[in-house]
Design brief:
alpha/beta, 2 domains, six-stranded parallel beta sheet
């Protein structure tokens, strides 16, 4: 089994100013650029200067407004054969779009996230809209990841809190994976478990958890990349996605106003870790408090009734996907927790 990891990896301040240099070093001189909505105006001047100075030719440039799979197929067919790599600048929509386009064309993708709301910028697979519904599709892990921590620092704080919520869920995801092994003998890749666990613990053990600190942001970015690699190693989302992700995906379905994926995941992780009797429950609570995640969500809570509906719907999200929610009586126990726990009720109202 061949395992891919990002060959090009830069996580540092002002990295976007050196994007041309990085591409030239990897031998990419003809690229297609894809921007998220509203981002070309913000970053194209710096990127154009950097590409021109390294004699990188932009063969095609597009702004991505939809990650509907039919739209991706149409736009992919227009990409000239001379393109050597696809460069995606922006958030999850444009990166998922570009990962799948690159997968179809068997081209390397360079991921340049402008926020770190989840691990998708460095993971295999792409979250797309298929027949009107969100679906995870097979794609390759990015060949390159370039993260400008100055850009991340200046992005809205909700995106960074979302990334923290997505990362802390590795604890509950690993628990669910091992639980599935006990119940169904589902294969568990121990190396992927180690990578995923190390990723979240690197964040947990870092002393200065101020999201305005460039070093902490660099660390979070690196940890999210490690989560992506863990999924590549296991050929599964299991190392970073368990029952807490099922609840978040279900909340997207049932809520009138869904929040950011990682914010929903972080809230669900807190509840699921309690349900699991997870030994890291107190650690999860502490990290979410210290980083400011709890304060932010308290000011922007999820809807309690929708969250309860999401819990009930969550086991239907993935077929034959065993988690703590599959065990007898656990759904009702979790719902009772959501209804009655005073601390948790700051997060859902």
């Amino acid at each position: 089994m061949e395992i891919s990891t990002p060959t090009l990896l830069r996580i540092k301040p002002n990295a976007i100013h050196k994007i041309g240099k990085y591409l030239r070093k990897e031998g990419f001189t003809r690229v297609a650029l894809f921007y998220g909505e509203g981002l070309k105006e913000l970053f194209s001047e710096h990127i154009t200067i950097s590409l021109d100075s390294s004699e990188i030719t932009v063969i095609q440039e597009e702004i991505v407004v939809s990650n509907d799979i039919d739209n991706i197929f149409r736009q992919t067919m227009s990409i000239p054969g001379s393109v050597q790599a696809i460069v995606a600048i922006g958030g999850g929509k444009v990166i998922d779009f570009s990962k799948y386009a690159a997968f179809i064309l068997q081209l390397p993708i360079i991921s340049v996230p402008t926020s770190i709301s989840n691990d998708g910028f460095a993971s295999p697979g792409a979250s797309l809209v298929v027949n009107g519904r969100r679906k995870s599709m097979k794609a390759n892990i990015p060949y390159g990841v370039i993260v400008d921590t100055e850009i991340i620092k200046n992005s809205p704080e909700r995106y960074t809190y979302s990334g923290i919520g997505d990362l802390i869920s590795n604890y509950t995801a690993i628990y669910d994976w091992k639980l599935s092994y006990d119940a169904t003998r589902e294969y568990v890749n121990d190396f992927a478990v180690l990578i995923s666990t190390n990723a979240v613990e690197n964040m947990v053990n870092y002393k200065n958890k101020n999201i305005a600190d460039l070093e902490f942001l660099r660390l979070i970015c690196g940890c999210l990349v490690m989560s992506g690699v863990a999924m590549e190693v296991s050929r599964s989302s299991r190392p970073a996605s368990g029952s807490e992700h099922l609840i978040s995906h279900a909340y997207d379905h049932v809520a009138a106003r869904p929040s950011l994926h990682g914010l929903q995941v972080g809230v669900a992780t807190f509840a699921i870790s309690w349900l699991q009797g997870n030994k890291e429950h107190a650690t999860i609570k502490e990290v979410l408090e210290i980083t400011g995640f709890i304060d932010y969500v308290t000011k922007h809570p999820l809807d309690k009734e929708d969250f309860i509906k999401a819990i009930r719907y969550a086991p239907n999200i993935k077929e034959n996907y065993y988690t703590i929610l599959s065990a007898k009586g656990k759904l009702e126990k979790l719902i009772d927790f959501v209804k009655t726990d005073g601390y948790f009720n700051h997060l859902v109202k």
